[in-house]
C-alpha cells in the first residue's frame, strides 16, 4: 500500500520540470494528473471483485507487474502523450492492487482495530514518501527525470518476490465463483452496508479533495506564490500534508469515536482555512503549519472511515467494497483538481486556491454534520 501510493505522488515534484521542458499549461498538468485517477477508478469498478474470487495474492502480483511496466513508460516518456500513457497504465495497476491490498491487510489483522489503522495510514505514508524522495532525487541525484522511477521499479520487483514467497497460511482465501462473473462491473456495496456507505461519502469527499489540489497544482503554487524553487523543499512541503496523518491516527486511536470524528473534521477544516490565509499573505511558515494540521485531520477522518467500512462488511465482500470506497475517494482526488486547473487558465492561481479552499471548508462542515446525523440515526435504530 505504501509503495502503491508512493508512485502516485512521485511525479508531483517533477511537474514543474516537465512543464519547463515541454511547455504545457496548468490545465494540461491537471489532466495528466487526472487520467491516472480515471484509469484507476475504471479498473476498480471493473476488477474490484477479482481478489474476492481468485484471491488477493495473484491479483497483487499481476498488478505490481503492470505497475513496474508503467515505471518503464515514465522513464521513456519524451512528451505529454508519453507521460499520459504512463499515468494511464499506472492508474490501471494501482486500481487493481488497492482493493486487494486493503482487503488482505484486514483479512490478516491480529485484532479488529489494527487493520483499519494500517490500511488508512499506509496511504498518506506512501504519498508523503513518494513526494519527499522524488523531490530529493530530482534536486540532488543524477538523472533527475528518471531515477525515482528506477527506484520504484526495483521496489515492485522485490514486493513481487515477497508475495510469491508468502506461506500458504498467509494467503487470503478465494471464493467459488466463475471468473467471468468476477469481471462484471459491481458498483455498490452489500445491501446491509449501503446506509453506512452513503453516510461516509461526504467524509471521503472532504478528506481527499485537498490531496489532489496539493499534488497537482501545489508545486506550481509553491514556486509562483511562495517563491520555493528547490525541488527537495517542494517535496518536503507536499509531504508535510501527508506525513502527520498516520501519527495523528495513532494519537487519536484511544479517543471516543465521536470525539475522534469531531477532532478529525475540526483539524482538517481549520488547516484548510489557514492554508487560504497563508496563500493570501504569502507566508510559507503558516502554509507548513496549515498543511500539518490539515494532514492530521485527513488521517484521523480517513482511518475512522476505513474502520467503519471494515466493521460493516463481511470478508467475502470486502475487496469490492474497499474498491468502491477508493473509487469515490480518488474521484474526489482528481475531479476538483482538474476543475481548479481549468479555473487557473482564466483566473490567477491565488484566486483559484482561495475559492477551492473556501469550498473545501464548506464540504468539511457538511461532512461533519452528515456523520453526526448518521450516528444519531444509527443509535435511534438500535434503540
UniProtKB/TrEMBL annotation:
Q: What is its main location?
A: membrane
List the molecular function annotations (GO) for this entry. transmembrane transporter activity
Is this entry keyworded Electron transport?
no
Asked if the keyword Cytoplasm belongs to this entry, the reply reads: no
What's a GO cellular component annotated to this UniProt protein?
plasma membrane
Question: In which domain of life is the source organism classified?
Answer: Bacteria
PROSITE patterns from the entry?
A: MFS (PS50850)
Membrane topology value: Multi-pass membrane protein
Q: Name one Pfam family in it.
A: MFS_1
So where does this one cross the membrane?
A: 26-47, 59-78, 84-106, 118-141, 147-166, 196-217, 229-250, 262-280, 286-310, 322-347, 353-371
Listed A to Z, the keywords are: Cell membrane, Membrane, Transmembrane, Transmembrane helix, Transport
Q: List each copy of the Major facilitator superfamily (MFS) profile domain by range.
A: 1-375
Q: Where in the cell is it found?
A: Cell membrane
Would you tell me the protein name for this molecule? MFS transporter
Organism for this UniProt entry: Nocardia camponoti
Amino acid at each position: 500500500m505504501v509503495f502503491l501510493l508512493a508512485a502516485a505522488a512521485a511525479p508531483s515534484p517533477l511537474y514543474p520540470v516537465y512543464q519547463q521542458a515541454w511547455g504545457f499549461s496548468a490545465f494540461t498538468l491537471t489532466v495528466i494528473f487526472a487520467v491516472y485517477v480515471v484509469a484507476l477508478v475504471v479498473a476498480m469498478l471493473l476488477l474490484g471483485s477479482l481478489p474476492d474470487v481468485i484471491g488477493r495474492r495473484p491479483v497483487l502480483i499481476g498488478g505490481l507487474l503492470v505497475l513496474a511496466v508503467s515505471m518503464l513508460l515514465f522513464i521513456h516518456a519524451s512528451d505529454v502523450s508519453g507521460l499520459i500513457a504512463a499515468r494511464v497504465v499506472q492508474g490501471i495497476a494501482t486500481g487493481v492492487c488497492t482493493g486487494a491490498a486493503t482487503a488482505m491487510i484486514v483479512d490478516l489483522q491480529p485484532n479488529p482495530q489494527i487493520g483499519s489503522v494500517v490500511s488508512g495510514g499506509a496511504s498518506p505514508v506512501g504519498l508523503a514518501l513518494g513526494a519527499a524522495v522524488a523531490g530529493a532525487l530530482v534536486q540532488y541525484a543524477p538523472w533527475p527525470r528518471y531515477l525515482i522511477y528506477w527506484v520504484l521499479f526495483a521496489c515492485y520487483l522485490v514486493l513481487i518476490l515477497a508475495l510469491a514467497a508468502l506461506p500458504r497460511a498467509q494467503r487470503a482465501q478465494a471464493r467459488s465463483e466463475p471468473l467471468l462473473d468476477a469481471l462484471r462491473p459491481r458498483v455498490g456495496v452489500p445491501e446491509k452496508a449501503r446506509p453506512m456507505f452513503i453516510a461516509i461519502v461526504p467524509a471521503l469527499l472532504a478528506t481527499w479533495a485537498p490531496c489532489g489540489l496539493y499534488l497537482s497544482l501545489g508545486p506550481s503554487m509553491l514556486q509562483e506564490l511562495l517563491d520555493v524553487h528547490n525541488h527537495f523543499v517542494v517535496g518536503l512541503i507536499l509531504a508535510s500534508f501527508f506525513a502527520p496523518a498516520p501519527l495523528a491516527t495513532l494519537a487519536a486511536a484511544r479517543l471516543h469515536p465521536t470525539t475522534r470524528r469531531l477532532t478529525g473534521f475540526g483539524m482538517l477544516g481549520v488547516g484548510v482555512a489557514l492554508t487560504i490565509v497563508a496563500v493570501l499573505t504569502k507566508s510559507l511558515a503558516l502554509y507548513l503549519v496549515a498543511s500539518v494540521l490539515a494532514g492530521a485531520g485527513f488521517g484521523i477522518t480517513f482511518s475512522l472511515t476505513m474502520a467503519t467500512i471494515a466493521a460493516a462488511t463481511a470478508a467475502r465482500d470486502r475487496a469490492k467494497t474497499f474498491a468502491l470506497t477508493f473509487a469515490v475517494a480518488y474521484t474526489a482526488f482528481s475531479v476538483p483538481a482538474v476543475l481548479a486547473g481549468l479555473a487557473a487558465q482564466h483566473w490567477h492561481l491565488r484566486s483559484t486556491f482561495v475559492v477551492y479552499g473556501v469550498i473545501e471548508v464548506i464540504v468539511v462542515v457538511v461532512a461533519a454534520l452528515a456523520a453526526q446525523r448518521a450516528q444519531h440515526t444509527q443509535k435511534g435504530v438500535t434503540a
